[in-house]
Amino acid sequence: MTRYHDLADQTAALIADGVLRPGDRLPSVRHTCRLHGLAPVTVTQAYHLLESRGLIEARPRSGYFVRAHLGQRLPEPEMSRPVGHSTQLEVSDFIFEILDSTKDPAVAPLGSSFPSPWLFPLDKLGRCLASAARHLDPLATVTDLPPGNDELRRQLSLRYLAHGARVPPQEIIITSGALEGLNLCLQALTRPGDLIAIESPTFYAGLQASERLGLKVVEIPSHPREGVSLEALEDALRHHPIKACLFMLNFANPTGSCVPDARRRALVELLDRHDVPLIEDDVYAELHFGPTAPLCSKAVDPQGRVMHVSSFSKCLAPGYRIGWVAAGRYAGLIQRQKLSTSLATTVPVQIAMADYLRQGGYENHLRHLRRSLAAQEAALVAAVEAHFPEGTRLARPQGGYFLWLELPRRVDALALHRQALAHGISIAPGPIFSAKREFGHCIRLNFGHPVDARSRDAVATLGRLLAA
């Protein structure tokens, strides 16, 4: 696996540097085998990986070629620059109004927050769920109360271990999706009127949860590739009584940014020095396009201040609502919050997820899912490059399923949203990702659905609306 990934990465670098240009023919499999001393299956796997990323294409009886339609890569958006003072939130009504537009199946789902359900092993999961319901031990209705099913928490602990983090099952609390986990963490750490730090732009669900709890927020600038600014965060920690930080470090929604390993370590150390906990919303970490996952924050959390929140909703089982919090030193607090709010997460579903993980096959599913998403990302980028106007900036993610676009300053994203809906297209306008409704000329697009004729036509229509 390492050798074919290495060859794919070397070839991708040659394409990025312009050594291999659109339309160029790649060396044949046989020639590449002789050149690098590799087996034909290794070279073929590397070329298939590059094809899935949208970088090359196979032509019958001719070989592999750099895709000719890549075009001029769009420039990257700049670092966000939110105003530094705290904000009292009033965003929920505004966000709900926008989100209602994404529910209609007749609308092209470029604004959706969810990937296509057909990417997931729903039949196998359904069999696990049916078996769990048929063979449910009546005692499980008591034993699987918070912190949750023992076997599921053991399986999650093993996955943390595989990512270099020692997280004992006792620190893991099963929740009804990641959103409940975020709410439990905020409830455990804050009181109405308290101040938390969020990145800007940020996922709107965190804004809604904070507003519901009566919290104020200070927005921290973030880079579209490397995520939250440590320099700005350190300044905010010195000048504001911040009770907690709520960040996405891996393939953030909406920008797709991923905090590099060294900066991630520095972030955890900075928060340790200020005795401020980190609530990490990490639902996209499994969706990396590269050969390895980003550094797990729990692997560099000796003090247990990272409250790691995740779920299976984006990578395995949408609709099953199984999430968890690896709560570290706060595990007892989170368990009590869970008991006093929703009491328990559905027992048969916990058992079914534990059974699926125990059977194996999850990693194979993830490999197929990552390849699909990487190919869909490349296809959507190509469509945007072909149809969007000059002045568009685009953040190229290395995982997840969102594209963040900065449009020319004259564009009103909310007006574009309304125009797009009239043409049967949903988009996510930038202001829903800001406490102050900033990013008025930005949009988020979803490549978690197949990039087919319908979605390409939708992108072309958006391009025409932008040109009008």
From TrEMBL:
CDD domains: AAT_like (cd00609), WHTH_GntR (cd07377). The keyword Transcription regulation applies. Pfam families: Aminotran_1_2, GntR. Residues 1-69 form the HTH gntR-type domain. GO terms for molecular function: DNA binding; DNA-binding transcription factor activity; pyridoxal phosphate binding; transaminase activity. Keywords: Aminotransferase, DNA-binding, Pyridoxal phosphate, Transcription, Transcription regulation, Transferase. PROSITE patterns: HTH_GNTR. Gene3D superfamilies: Aspartate Aminotransferase, domain 1, Type I PLP-dependent aspartate aminotransferase-like (Major domain), Winged helix-like DNA-binding domain superfamily/Winged helix DNA-binding domain. The keyword DNA-binding applies. In the C-terminal section; belongs to the class-I pyridoxal-phosphate-dependent aminotransferase family. PANTHER family: HTH-TYPE TRANSCRIPTIONAL REGULATORY PROTEIN GABR (PTHR46577), TRANSCRIPTIONAL REGULATORY PROTEIN (PTHR46577:SF2). This is HTH gntR-type domain-containing protein. The lineage of its organism: Bacteria, Pseudomonadati, Pseudomonadota, Betaproteobacteria, Rhodocyclales.
